[in-house]
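Figure-free illustration: sequence to structure, shown twice.
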Amino acid sequence: MFEPKGVMRRLHTGVLLGMVLAMATAALVAGCERGGGEPQARGPKPAAPTIRASTPFGGATGNIVGEVFHLPEGTDRLPDFDRLRPVGHLRTDRFDVPERDFDKGFPGVTDRIEWFGLRYRGAFAVRRAGRYRFRLISDDGARLIIDGRIVIDNDGIHPPQAAEGEVQLTAGRHTLELQYFQGPRYQVALQLQILCGGSWRVWTTALLAGEEGAACALGPGDALVFDTNWGRMTLRPLPGGGYEGEYETDEGRIRLRPAGKDGTYTGIWSETDADRRCAEARDGRHHWGWVRLRFEPDMSGFGGEWGYCEEPEAAGGWHGTRVTSK
């Protein structure tokens, strides 16, 4: 028997099915066009590859994980790495890249030799609770963060430059983050050191966990003592980097801050009497001047020059040899 209602239902279903198929086909074609011939995959983007080859900044092994980022040309400060996507990963257990050329990039991931950033994150153990002094040397900017607190900020475009900082650490586990960026080619530097027994040593993830690291904890009033051509001089660490202290000549005082190349410090000296009287007083004295000293990497001695007031010409030399560390 002829059933007009059934025919209409079948026709209606066929029309709807045709429309659905047409829409699906159009979406597939559009996806192929956008993807160069293949439909666009959905889901999470793949993780950045691991750098297997050895580079100055790390390789395939180590307890600290680093991320490599591309940065825009002209970057002059550390970026907000949380807003960037890494292009690769690497590992290390130390940061010991003295000033050198960098012209190979990161094999297998990127050939960038300039305008890139690195963010390292990990943890280390401390056996002996105490106060520890770190030194960060970088070209260009770098920042050391321990337990979420900025310990050293050495940011900006600059040649190899040292900055220091201290932190109180309890016995146990601590987190570390080190940020770094390289501006224009070719020179790089990135070194993290720690003061141990009066000498600077390369920091490693294992150093403070053992007996050897106990020598790195600073005692109250920890000081460096030098015999110099201006009498015995005692230097004590300053918060944020540098030293202040006294020397024997005319009740001399001295204050130094890290500057420029590794081991170079600049500052002022002042005395109760001197051959030249400055018009303006500094440190409550009219007998003062500038000083520039360069210390040996192990702080065993130094050499440099000094001048009167703000006069640019050097008036003489200043050198010394370390006697002991209190």
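We now fold a second protein in the same way, so the two outputs can be compared directly.
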Amino acid sequence: MKTVAVLMVTMLTLIGFAYGDGTNVSSQIGYTIQYPDNGGWTAGIAYHKDNVETETIMEHAVLYNNDGACITVDVWKSHPKLDLKYWLALMENRLKLEKTFAEEIRTSVENLPAMRYTFLADNVQAFNSQMTFFKNSDKVFRVGYLEKDLGRANEVYRQMVQTFSFAAVGQEMGPLSKEKGGSRVYSCGGQNDDCKCNMDNPYPCCDNGGNCTWWAWESACCNWGIGLPSPWRHAKYWATDLASHGYHVSQSPSAGTIACRDTGTYGHVAWVLQVSGSQVKVSEMNCCDGCNSGVREHWYEASYFSGGFISR
């Protein structure tokens, strides 16, 4: 169910760590963010592409620590004449911003205006998360925090947001060799997260020994050799989230794609093995009381996957 957002205006105060006591890191795309010197934090660029279509993510950076916290900075190419509120209004349906809570903020370091959203996952399939959006000229910046560490870095995240700047004055981030941030589980339903891509599987395993998102993410890692980027939300959001990262979404099924059902409370995702007429054979897991553990192969009508079929 879509909840009603509560809008507030507030000025953030410095919490989590003292401004100036951390490390400033920058991107050549034009921003700086600060993270604390303690806690084993690492930062890097997981994805960068200069030539992208408007309203597509052109860079994905990750900051993580040894405790499982994962904070990301995504940068969209946008139209320079759109202000942030209008951009969010245009993108709300596309990004499926079914927020639990929303507020206007101003950072206390540079007094930058921003919008912060809070999302409650309500289920073991995904994670509570926060997103803070900034806009500068033809770029929109999203600083996101997925509470894979059960919220222990919440104050650090809010302090990072406060330090955000449109000037690239810190140490330039290099490529991220392996995106971490703490997978909740290494194994799910008899399968191990052993495939080589640029990060660990970010999804949990449900009590029944399965999770469609865990297995679809792992299948993409094994077959495409890349870790699907954040935000790692419920299955029903995958098509819109990955389209923002430049992935292709088609209503025509093909083998070697991710099938996405974008209806229902959580939706469903699966790896397509075979197409025959109007049907698709998928490899999938499920997360529900009474569902079998592990991976199964199953035939569906292609129309069941109303969100489409995702490919690189």
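Summary for the second example: The domain at 187-311 is CATH 3.90.1720.10 (endopeptidase fold (from Nostoc punctiforme)).
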